[in-house]
Amino acid sequence: MINLKDKKILFLSVSFFKYERAIAKRLTELGAEVDFYDERPSNSNISKGIIRFNKRFYHLKINQYYNRILSEIRGKQYDFFFLIKGEAIPTFFLEKIKENNPEMEMIYYNFDPLTEYPNLISHLKYFDKKFTFEYNDSVKFNLSFRPLFYLEEYKNLNQNNRSSEYDVVFIGSAHTDRYIVGEKIRAAADRLNLNSYFYYYAMGRIAFRLKKLIDKNLKQFDIDKVSFDKLNHHQIIDFYKKTKSVLDINKPFQHGLTIRTFEVLASGRKLITTNADIKNYPFYCPNNILVVDRENIQLEPDFFKTDFKEIDREVLRKMSLDSFIECFFDRHQDEYWNSFRK
Fold first, then answer.
1. Which of 18, 116, 119, 186 is the most buried (most CB within 10 A)?
2. Closest to 34 (Cα-Cα) out of 82, 2, 85, 84
3. Average pLDDT over every residue of 81-96
4. Model pLDDT for residues 252-277, shown as the tens digit of each residue
5. How far is CA 43 from CA 83, 163, 233, 285, in A?
6. Options 1.10.3470, 2.60.120, 3.40.1000, 3.40.50; which CATH number does 8-149+322-338 get?
7. Residue 292 and residue 302: Cα distance in Å, rounded?
8. pTM of the predicted protein model
9. What is the dihedral of CA 42, 85, 27, 65, to 10 degrees?
10. CB–CB of 40/64 below 8 Å?
11. Would you call 68 helix, strand, or coil by DSSP?
12. Could you tell me which residues come within 8 angstroms of residue 181 by beta carbon, excluding any fewer than 6 positions away?
């Protein structure tokens, strides 16, 4: 296990369901002194929308926010700067912190395709180590390839020989064609007399209604099936304990595996996924993972009749948060993760 004792880390991350807090906490447990900041000045739906589509309209607030961070960290010397995603971060901030810490190692990670966020590409040149969860981006932009991770609380959720309440559970944000695909899979499950539970989450009622007006996929969304209450990790884990399998629906243009993939498999639950690229990972096993075509959905009845096959211990460790951190602050894992590509 990596030892970060007395290492000083400036850590900025986009907010993603409090995983960034879990990363900061683990870095601290491994001995590091961590100064953590959200990379967005605000996480309101309006702020997120402005930053994503044209952050120039938010220029003044972004600059004020980052100048405040510079003021708060003035005089501190860091060993590492660690950035996850960086939608809002301005160029002057990256230049200034490197000027103030010339020996500091700059580390970047992204868990979204760069084709979806092309504005992030110009900042790659400022980093010493650059990682992505998207294999195609690693090849195109010469980045290291590192998939996401699971949190320890998801690991090996025993059912104590109880029969599952559900055969299929889906928990996820309402975006792209997720509702259309999800409802087709729900219908296929119904035809097989499988018990299912679907939880579609949206950030806000007004924002969701506005998106429905312009997004052809969301126009079909029955708003009565949307929840505006976010489930925490304990609630999600409770659903996992009650189910045989969990459904994951990736964005149509995304090949990198979602964090849900790792949590489900670490928990000892079977995975149904629309992401065929999962066949290029060390933990792929047809007994545990059912890949469905979002254009021609078929569920295999036999998939639900067999038990989960235990994942090799070393493979499971490579999927963990500790391994994720080691990849950035010790040595990259390109040779390992790339060796399974077909």
1. 186
2. 82
3. 96
4. 989 999 999 999 999 999 999 999 99
5. 17, 40, 20, 38
6. 3.40.50
7. 14
8. 0.90
9. -30
10. no
11. helix
12. 249, 274, 294, 297
